[in-house]
Amino acid sequence: MELIDRVAAYDPTVDEALLNRAYVYAMRMHGAQLRASGDPYFAHPIEVAGILTDYKLDSAAIVTALLHDTIEDTPATREEIASLFGEEIAQLVEGVTKLTRLELKSEYTKQSENLRKFILAISKDVRVLLVKLADRLHNMRTLQYVPEHKRERISRETLEVYAPLARQIGCNRFATELEDLAFTFINPRGRAAILQRLADLRDQKGAAVADIARDIQDTLSVAGIRARVSGREKSPYSIWRKLQRKSIGFSQLSDIVAFRVIVDSPDDCYLSLGVLHRKWPCVQDRFKDFISTPKSNNYQSLHTTVIGHKGARIEMQIRTEVMDRVAEEGLAAHWGYKNQSYGFDEAAATQWAERNPIANLRAIVQIAENGGDSEEWVEHAKLEMFLDQVFCFSPKGRLISLPRGAMPLDFAYAVHTEVGDKAIGAVINGEHKPLRTPLQNGDQVEIITGVEARVNPDWQSLTITGRARAAIRRSIRQTQRDDFIRLGRSALERGAAQVEKTLTDMSWRPAFERFQVQSEDELFELCGRGKIAPAKVLEALFPGLKLPATLTTDSFSRIKDGEDATAFVRGHALRPQQKIVFSRCCTPVPGDRIVGIVEGAEVHVHSIECEQLEAYEGRKEVWIDLQWTLNAEKNTVSPARIRANMRNKPGVLGQVCTLIGEAKGNIVNIRLSNQQVDFLDAEFEVEVLDARHLTNITAAIRTNPSVEGVERIRG
């Protein structure tokens, strides 16, 4: 049998008779059962067992793979399996069966108690998890045969649970394939687009990748270091995840291809690093040493990025052969032959790094087994396995999944829209924290709510999830609509009073027909927004009525810049007749890099960092390169806005104002917002000399220990 040959290739002690018995028993139990693809069901456990041979697992794990569905889907019992194959295998099969039954509930990723049971089941013997990962991997490889309405749920479960668990025990090869297969069904168009970009990149730079790898190898060889160098593309899912996390475009990614440098010893890793950094300058803040400080799953490697030929960034991972195997196979890398037996060498795994990878699961399990209370469970179960998600708990133990970087308002809206709308503060792990505090895995979050909904437009900057931002925008739109309705009604009532008329007991139909609206509120809103002049409505309601001149003029006049700005900015393409207007969307100050956008006879001055500039991409004819004049840099005072998040306690606001004054900033206005029990946001409008002066002021504010954060507000 091919399966036996594959096991015997790495385990000379394999019990061939045991494998044959398991093979025959599973085939007999599954009988004529068919998969969704129409293939005989028994093909599935054979494939699962084959996947585990790639990781060189022991015979007990291979037998468990062959039998893993027998208790769940056939008349087989645990007692029968124990009598035929031994207690060890019976326990493993039972463990996989329990996982399958938990999985069928499909709610365990949302509830802390089910998650507790899940982790307990997989960690009593990590082989249970490895068999389940192989089972899920083969199921994902054949997911196209599953009914379409189930594919997305299974794929999301794979991304949220199984791939992170694989990474938790270091099995990156498992995790990468699971993620990419799930990505295929969750976002096929996004994956196809990335694959096309990767193919184009290979056509353009394929030869360059080989040249760089050869250059790295030659450089190390000259230094007397034996190395094996290869270039590896990131997977489509990891590229997609990075594009989302950093909000950048594909062309801005500098590490689509990473070069793996495999050397003989840890000492050679550091020697190689020195040689390569002498050859090419390194990029600051892009060096990480995971050899002296391994990741929790025992991943070890040196990461660095250098500036190579023609200014291209080259990302490198430097490690030994053993480190490379552990990086790919994680826990499975420690199965081997020792002392006339084959199995997991826990002593070797522990010696290899400071802690055994199984400890990643055991640390959580010990709390669960000891029956710790909810608070203790949350404190210790940080759930680091969910690398790209944050899992937080409500006070009642409900588990909320959020993207990394999420804040308390994201949590609030994930619980319920009403909770988000009424939120006034947050308690994280028993302490009052600002609403802009990033949440961490395992945090217990309690949202403090008020009696009424009080959604602040500034809240959009305190959220990252689409659900929260959509709810905030919806609430803001409704609030704004109510305000415009009141404004429009008031304007019409005042206008009617000027001509000694009243809006009560009258027919609105003439105005509805003329302006094509359906209700009074719709008409009031249009008036409030300035889209319909009150005088026009009154003319429709009272035909032939002579209106005062004050009603016929447009009351919504534009704010005009009253000062000639040519004394402050200059540019070669400026024409004498063009008027310069400083844009309020980014409030540039001397020292900021600025550009001009031509709009008719006006040139609008923007900071180069202004978000509004995206609207003019591709229209080179409207762009003008501008610089500040010497007069602007030496003889002007400009308004700038600063937001400080500070503790809400006596004296702090006065201390911050003093710091601004000592930094020679003149406060023009102060606005307080997002007031909570313990924190608030204070927005200061300050007159500054230039950008450097503004930077000095923000730095001074940060020195106050009661200030959590300071940022410049543009616009």
TrEMBL record:
It catalyses: GTP + ATP = guanosine 3'-diphosphate 5'-triphosphate + AMP. NCBIfam families: spoT_relA (TIGR00691). It holds the Pfam family ACT_4. Residues 384-449 form the TGS domain. Residues 641-715 form the ACT domain. Residues 41-140 form the HD domain. In eubacteria ppGpp (guanosine 3'-diphosphate 5'-diphosphate) is a mediator of the stringent response that coordinates a variety of cellular activities in response to changes in nutritional abundance. Belongs to the relA/spoT family. This is GTP pyrophosphokinase rsh. Its EC number is 2.7.6.5.
